[in-house]
Amino acid sequence: MSNVSRAVNIADLRLMARRRLPKAIFDYVDGGAEDELSLRANRRAFEDVTFRPRHAVAVPEPDLRVRVLGHDLALPVLLGPVGYNRMMHPKGECAAARAAGAAGTIYILSTVSGHRLEDVKAASTGPVWYQLYLTGGRDAAKAGIERARAAGFSALVITVDTYVAGMRERDVHNGTPELLSPNVLSKLPYLPQFLAHPAWLVSFLLDGGVHRLPNIVVPGEGPLPLVDVSTALSRVSFTWEDLSWIRPLWPGPIIIKGVLTGDDARRAVDGGAAAVVVSNHGGRQLDSSPATLRVLPEVVAAVNGRAEVLIDGGIRRGADVVKAICLGARAVLVGRAYAYGLGAAGEAGVARALEILRTDLVRTLKLLGCGSVAALDRSYVDVPARYAG
To answer: What does UniProt list as catalytic (predicted)?
Structure first.
């Protein structure tokens, strides 16, 4: 197990995860779609925005607190949904939820989870949201919504950008579909990469190998096998009309994740969304989608205060969080940033990722001369003219 206390930044956790995980598992987390243009664009967008600090301003201890959909959080960083964390670590989603609760923030559980949603909710001491795909059909989705409501999840996050799984070429090259298949012979060509990571392999085998997906229960068939997710996604996908049957099932806030235009943001809010997440799925779906930070101002303007705006994609440092909030986001979601920590060292790695981002935030606000997250606005940044809004 990596000594994550030595990690100075998220890039260090990434290297630790890369050493511990087989290539197929690491690349599943690390990679994007096709040429990975959107994956890289997300990072470049943050690099393009520069700060306008206020010097000679004493900021003894910046206030990182933020209120998101009624939850008072200790910092403006939520753990976004990442599919099947159990491949990275046996405790997977439960470990991430515990770390989020301990840090005073929200964990968002993916439908494509390796652990039962009831167990994940029980593991967390903080608020937990449930991310919904219509995978398995409407009846399976309804059952998942009802279970999440009964378990005490406080918000429903509907991802709208996944009509089919993106073409993640690293996964194809690494034989990931074969690795998830029940066919043992199909795995043999990829055996060397697993043998090269004995610690991960032992923990994976002791955990029972690849599990079915306990939160996607297809009527008459049982839990969906992980290998069938891509096919199931292509058969049933979300449209705006689906909100008409989802809303009566869910009494709490609904968040629409995957918004990249002002038009879609308005549709989401008109349909009753309490928040939208500006997201290109971490560059894992439609390649050449715009960087999320670049379109954030357009979405903020379109929403016009009628709903909260969150953002994900490419966030690796506290400075990135600050830039997003300056451009109008209420808070950010991170995915890879905490998944690297999970892959490196389980719950301790996730906790370290959050601590790194917290420390970054404090330092950045002090250097900006800004006393709180709530005081951040566009006057603290210089933004390229090509940014929307």
So the answer is: 281
